[in-house]
TrEMBL record:
Record keyword Protease present: no
Alphabetized UniProt keyword annotations: Acetylation, ATP-binding, Ligase, Nucleotide-binding
Family annotation (NCBIfam families): Ac_CoA_lig_AcsA (TIGR02188), PRK00174.1 (NF001208)
Location of the Acetyl-coenzyme A synthetase N-terminal domain: 40-94
Domain AMP-dependent synthetase/ligase: 101-488
Protein name in UniProt: Acetate--CoA ligase
Protein species of origin: Chloroflexus aurantiacus (strain ATCC 29366 / DSM 635 / J-10-fl)
Length: 644
């Protein structure tokens, strides 16, 4: 398989038309008909000319303690506010609302551990578990407005803990369980969390990942945490510190941890969570999302894109610790009253058909994953999926990076048997929910996220904001506000304004390059900033570089992303050693391990090259673009500012 997306655009004329029966029965066409439209395109046009009416229409399908006074307040751009004056709580719509109907008996979650163990939770039971944790948090002094950090393996308690925070009005900050102590410590310090929820460990490829040990190291680096709540999962004897650490199973046994806890009334604009993501500098950005708009946006996009119905068994195979998990494992499926599936371990454990066997075993109808996972499983050959009955599947999905047409076609043919359209959803931590995406009513082009979602206007433009010609490379922008948009960056509103709204004013600049073809289909090319997508995970070159220079042997470092067959991109680093250190294979291995230890295994560079100088601008900025061009044997482009 060749990596083509840096060089050429795939065939933009190839169209896959959806099955008319699927279109006919889809949620989105039912909505179109209810509005008096016969086609998706007519509906789309109406949502653009009646944007606020459309979002208000969707919001009114949910429950509010008090209705909003104004759908959109744009008086203080770019600090947009949605459903102003409205009172709600996303958990009320994700859980409480269903308890008043037959759905209280419906399965909310089916979970399978890597060892094959299984747990299921009805909506009724979900409420019980969440309420008990919420009561424990309250008894530990957690209040409305606090930020609780969560660092957990992929187990149901991760979801319950997030919901428990939101239920009592605290914001959560989930740190992906694959991150190491430095990353966790930085995020704890920025959020000033007093309470951390974690687990003793998780399972990956049959081995225990000792999360609590990492937590202890992180807590020795940052002083804010007073209480650490620990779920028992691996039961391997995690190190606990008296007075600070508490076993959750002990606390959940106390009378205070009963199954009744009122859901706090929240202002639509109150903070629901922060989620750290990588940007251009080494300091991760704490992206802020709120209860009201995020609730409406995630609910609407999942309902129409993945066409969620009561009969579905929906599996989003992401990690809840990333935005995809927040929006499309935790919140949107529950708000839609869906049955979700969650799996803890590795896709190829113990064999490369683990995923396919679970699709068959649990009768999964919708599978939403990432190109890197598809490419990873495709590598093992067609025999593995062919052994399993995948006939329950009706929709597939992809997210995180552009999907190369080879992977798209394999997914479509070998997993979907040519019956299941692929929803290639483009969006970001910052956007909260899908922005450019097909629905089951949109013809597909392999490799394109197709067109903007209802109510969204996206375009590809030059730096001055003028539209690009068809197939011309440009900047991807969103032209109007949307409900689930980030509200700010925690502790750094200026970075929000400059980073997103002052690049191509008055538009929201996504930081991606893209092309739009003559049919209006958008083809995302990749990031324009110093962000590398490794296996769909977003990492900043600056984070990798600061991890490297924290090693005593390293004087200076530069990290770049280069195409990788499975991971999409892999990190390659260039290092200048301090006097007294000599390049060696052994040192390369040590430095790679050091980055893995500091940031997490996903950030470990594939290679480290020892150099004596790095290409820099006269002002001292490393020209990663030049390093990349050299590594790929491409022209170096404009090097007039190069200092060498
Ligand atoms: C990339 C993940 C092409 C893009 C939800 C974006 C995609 C970044 C797609 C956000 C897609 C995400 N096609 N590229 N379908 N989805 N991206 O914040 O570069 O982890 O800017 O959010 O992923 O990454 P994030």
């Amino acid at each position: 398989m060749t990596e083509t997306r840096d060089v050429a655009l795939p065939d933009t004329s190839e169209l896959y038309y959806p099955d008319p029966a699927l279109v006919e029965q889809s949620n989105v066409m039912a909505y179109a008909r209810s509005k008096g439209f016969n086609s998706y395109d007519e509906l789309y046009q109406w949502t653009i000319s009646h944007r606020e009416e459309f979002w208000a229409d969707m919001a009114s399908q949910l429950e509010w303690f008090k209705p909003w006074d104004k759908v959109l307040d744009d008086s203080n751009k770019p600090f947009y506010q949605w459903f102003v004056g409205g009172k709600t709580n996303i958990v009320y719509n994700a859980i409480d609302r269903h308890l008043k109907t037959w759905r209280k008996n419906k399965l909310a979650l089916i979970w399978e551990g890597e060892d094959g163990s299984q747990r299921t939770y009805s909506y009724y039971q979900l409420n019980y578990e969440v309420s008990r944790i919420a009561n424990v948090l309250k008894s530990m002094g957690v209040k409305k407005g606090d930020i609780v950090t969560i660092y957990m393996p992929r187990i149901p308690e991760l979801m319950f803990s997030m919901l428990a925070c939101a239920k009592i009005g605290a914001a959560h900050s989930v740190v992906y369980g694959g991150f190491s102590e430095a990353a966790l410590a930085d995020r704890l310090a920025d959020a000033k969390s007093k309470v951390l929820i974690t687990a003793d460990g998780g399972y990956m490829r049959g081995k225990v990942v000792e999360l609590k040990k990492i937590v202890n190291e992180a807590l020795s680096r940052t002083p804010t945490v007073q209480t650490c709540l620990v779920f028992r999962h691996t039961n391997h004897g995690a190190p606990m510190e008296q007075g600070r650490d508490f076993w959750m199973h002990d606390l959940l046994g106390l009378p205070i941890a009963n199954g009744h806890c009122p859901t706090e009334e929240m202002d639509a604009e109150d903070m629901l969570f922060i989620l750290y993501t990588s940007g251009t500098t080494g300091k991760p950005k704490g992206v802020v999302h709120t209860h009201g708009g995020y609730m409406v946006g995630t609910y609407t996009t999942l309902k129409f894109v993945f066409d969620i119905k009561d009969e579905d068994r929906y599996w989003c195979a992401a990690d809840p610790g990333w935005i995809t998990g927040h929006s499309f494992i935790v919140y949107a499926p529950l708000i839609n009253g869906a049955t979700s599936f969650m799996y803890e371990g590795a896709p190829n454990y113990p064999y490369p058909d683990r995923w396919w066997s679970m699709v068959a075993k649990h009768g999964i109808t919708i599978l939403y994953t990432a190109p890197t996972a598809i490419r990873g499983l495709m590598r093992f050959g067609d025999l593995w999926p062919s052994r399993h009955d995948l006939s329950t599947l009706r929709l597939l999905g992809s997210v995180g990076e552009p999907i190369n047409p080879e992977a798209w076609k394999w997914f479509y043919e070998k997993i979907g048997h040519g019956r299941c359209p692929i929803m290639d959803t483009w969006w970001q931590t910052e956007t909260g929910h899908f922005m450019i995406t097909p629905t089951p009513a949109v013809p597909l082009k392999p490799g394109s996220a197709t067109r903007p979602f209802l109510g969204i206007e996206a375009d590809v433009v030059h730096e001055d904001g003028s539209p690009c010609a068809p197939d011309e490379d440009g900047l991807l922008v969103i032209k109007n506000p949307w409900p689930g948009m980030m509200r700010t960056i925690l502790n750094d509103p200026q970075r929000y304004v400059e980073g997103y709204w002052q690049k191509v004013p008055p538009y929201y600049a996504a930081g991606d390059s893209a092309r739009k073809d003559k049919d209006g289909y958008i083809w995302v090319i990749g990031r324009l900033d110093d962000v590398i997508k490794v296996s769909g995970y977003r990492l900043g070159t600056a984070e990798v570089e600061s991890a490297l220079v924290s090693h005593p042997a390293v004087a200076e470092a530069a990290a770049i992303g280069l195409p990788h067959e499975v991971k999409g991109n892999a990190i390659h680093a260039f290092v200048i050693l301090r006097a007294g250190y000599e390049p060696s294979h052994d040192l390369e291995e040590k430095l790679r391990a050091h980055v893995g230890h500091e940031l997490g295994p996903i950030a470990r560079p594939d290679s480290i090259t020892f150099v004596t100088s790095l290409p820099k601008t006269r002002s001292g900025k490393i020209m990663r673009r030049v390093l990349r061009a050299r590594a790929l044997g491409l022209p170096e482009g404009d090097v007039s500012t190069l200092e060498e």
